[in-house]
């Protein structure tokens, strides 16, 4: 009788564990689905702020620039179809925009070089000086200073911020670091919009640098 009662207790305990385990699995699946739908947990409450205007704008930029962090994606059939059409038209238009921005940057550098040549009667020195200044300015604006902003808003180290900056502007986009994803932090409304513009201009600048490197290697 004691052995029979012992086994009954064991079976009852296993049944309870299986029941609880199945509910835990269902709960985890619900949490994963909610995360994919754009819900983030903040203590005992939820926030749908990831699909607000700034979050949607940032998602649009990450899509047409082909960065594709993977932290946010459409969860409905209509959303996926729209995303495909949006990318088909958005990616070529974005390439045109980046090319125009890059050409404007290049024209600005050349204009400054010509002005120096006229004022100081320099030739090769003016071009070299302006290109060096443009390179240093670009490094500061797009790679060296942004990590300080990420340190303040995200709590990342400088190395992590620099890593995120390069991975983003080079469109590698691993997704291991993404801005605005920490539920314990409050982000200002302008934050993602400014970062989106930084991505556009930063990609144009980095494309020019890569182009110069290719010409040098060739």
Automatic annotation (TrEMBL):
InterPro entries: 2pore_dom_K_chnl, K_chnl_dom. Residues 46-105, 140-217 form the Potassium channel domain. Coiled coil: none annotated. The chain crosses the membrane at residues 14-32, 53-72, 78-98, 128-150, 162-182, 194-217. Keywords: Ion channel, Ion transport, Membrane, Potassium, Transmembrane, Transmembrane helix, Transport. GO terms for biological process: stabilization of membrane potential. It is found in: Membrane. Signal peptide: none annotated. Gene3D superfamilies: 1.10.287.70. GO terms for molecular function: outward rectifier potassium channel activity; potassium ion leak channel activity. Belongs to the two pore domain potassium channel (TC 1.A.1.8) family. This is KCNKH protein. It comes from Ciccaba nigrolineata. The gene is Kcnk17.
């Amino acid at each position: 009788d004691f052995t029979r009662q012992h086994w009954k207790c064991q079976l009852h305990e296993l049944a309870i564990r299986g029941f609880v385990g199945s509910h835990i699995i269902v709960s985890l699946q619900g949490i994963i689905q909610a995360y994919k739908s754009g819900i983030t947990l903040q203590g005992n409450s939820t926030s749908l702020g990831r699909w607000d205007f700034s979050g949607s704008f940032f998602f649009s930029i990450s899509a047409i620039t082909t960065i594709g962090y993977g932290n946010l994606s459409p969860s409905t059939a209509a959303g996926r179809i729209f995303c495909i059409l949006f990318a088909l038209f958005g990616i070529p238009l974005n390439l045109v925009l980046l090319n125009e921005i890059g050409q404007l940057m290049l024209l600005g550098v050349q204009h400054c070089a010509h002005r120096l040549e006229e004022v100081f009667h320099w030739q090769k020195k003016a071009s070299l000086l302006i290109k060096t200044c443009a390179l240093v300015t670009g490094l500061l604006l797009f790679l060296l200073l942004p990590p300080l902003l990420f340190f303040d808003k995200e709590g990342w180290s400088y190395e992590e911020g620099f890593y995120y900056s390069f991975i983003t502007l080079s469109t590698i986009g691993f997704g291991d670091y993404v801005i605005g994803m920490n539920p314990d932090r409050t982000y200002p409304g302008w934050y993602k919009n400014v970062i989106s513009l930084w991505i556009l201009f930063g990609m144009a600048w980095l494309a020019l640098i890569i182009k110069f490197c290719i010409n040098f290697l060739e």
